[in-house]
Amino acid sequence: MTDEREANSDETLCRRIAARDEAAFDLLVARYQGRAYRLAWSLLRDAEDARDVSQDAFIRVWEAADRFRGESRFSTWFYRILVNLCLDHKRRGRWWTRLVARDEDSDADAALVERQPAPGPDPGDQVSEAQTMARLWEAVHGLSPQQRAAVILHAQEQLSTAEIAEVLKVAEPTVRVHLHRAVAALRKELAP
Amino acid sequence: MSDARRDDLTPEERDLLARAAAAAPPPPEPRWGDYRAELRAKLEARRSVGARLRGWWARPAPIALSIGLATALLLFALQPVERKPDLTLAALDEAVIGARLGLLEHYRVVERLDLLEELDVIRQLDDVPSRKG
Predict the structure, then answer these.
(1) Which of A56, A82, A70 is nearest to A9 (CA)?
(2) Smallest Cα–Cα separation from A77: which of A6, A154, A158, A14?
(3) Hey, is the C-beta of B42 within 8 angstroms of any chain A C-beta?
(4) How far is C-alpha A100 from the geometric centre of its chain's CA atoms?
(5) Which residues of B35-62 are buried (b: 16+ CB within 10 A; e: fewer)?
(6) Are the beta carbons of A66 and A18 closer than 8 angstroms?
(7) What is the DSSP string of chain A?
(8) Burial code of A95-124, b = ≥16 C-beta within 10 A, e = fewer?
(9) Which of A60, A91, A119, A139 is the least crowded, having the fewest Cβ atoms under 10 Å away?
(10) If contacts are CB pairs under 8 Å, which of residues 78-137 in chain A contact chain B?
(11) Residue A126 in contact with residue A116, Cβ under 8 Å?
């Protein structure tokens, strides 16, 4: 049982990919595609970009699998590739792309309110909660790209601060500062 | 888990971050079959481009061509550049002449000295025995 788990572990699959095992690559893609796409989408807020960038991350895995030393977990290594690609993509983003994205974001926020379940016993509370969530999400996107990545990796991907530090290539105290600043920004946003 | 994560956050702060991350509206889910097919196509394209480049570089003719081109470029870059007379040089000449205007005031003396130099007199003045008394 343990041997079987070891044989299918991410790290083993990555070693097999380094030996150009396409079946291992397909398995790893199937395992990570959802997480990779969602994480990229959380950082980029654009479905098309998230699709492209997450696919690029898998291509990097194929090309650089032999450089994975196994000193950290495969997921940490993979998130580092993906987050770096996302941050690079954002840096390269043109001003007009951002303007268009801002308009789409407003639509997305409106859609978020519309997507809430049908009003239950207290419609006022439901709408209020949806608006709070939309404001929270908006506040997350007001953070710097690094802070946002730290929040998403911490809260969504459940990474430790040490792992986030490794992904973002910063010191662990810096991650804690990112998280505290994010909390402060979110509180400010939610303040009446 | 919270100890292992060492984030220095209070449970309330951690909850706020969790709510913020959960506030993300669900992304439009791609068709995963298409997603993987697209990924496979991109990977194939990269591999074929890489293979073509490697194949091109492995042939002797392209290598010779590249070396020849690099040498030509190097020679071109290193060859001395023939400079056209420059306006700044002309301005410099004028400045030098301006500084020697004092000599031009005594032009006749200078002209005679030049003549004596040409007659090789001035250079041999030291060798001319002095006439004493």
Answers:
(1) A70
(2) A14
(3) yes
(4) 21
(5) bbeebbeebeeeeeeeeeeeeeeeeeee
(6) yes
(7) -HHHHHHTSHHHHHHHHHTT-HHHHHHHHHHHHHHHHHHHHHHH--HHHHHHHHHHHHHHHHHHGGG--SSS-HHHHHHHHHHHHHHHHHHH--HHHHHHHHHHHHHHHHHHHHHSPPP-S-HHHHHHHHHHHHHHHHHHHHS-HHHHHHHIIIIIS---HHHHHHHHTS-HHHHHHHHHHHHHHHHHHH--
(8) eeeeeebeeebeebbeebeeeeeeeeeeee
(9) A91
(10) 108-109, 111-112, 115, 133-134, 136-137
(11) yes
What is the C-alpha to C-alpha distance for residues A172 and A58, in angstroms, rounded to an integer?
27
**Residues A141 and A162: beta-carbon distance below 8 Å:** no
Q: How many CB atoms lie within 10 A of CB A165?
A: 20
Classify each residue of A151-164 as buried b or exposed e, where b means 16 or more C-beta atoms within 10 Å of its C-beta: bbbbbbbebbbebb
- ipTM, two decimals, is 0.74
Chain B contacts in chain A segment 29-58 (CB below 8 A): 29-30, 33-34, 37-38, 41-42, 47, 50-51, 55-56, 58
Task: Test A179 with B5 for CB contact under 8 angstroms.
Answer: no
Other Cβ atoms within 10 Å of A10 Cβ, number: 17
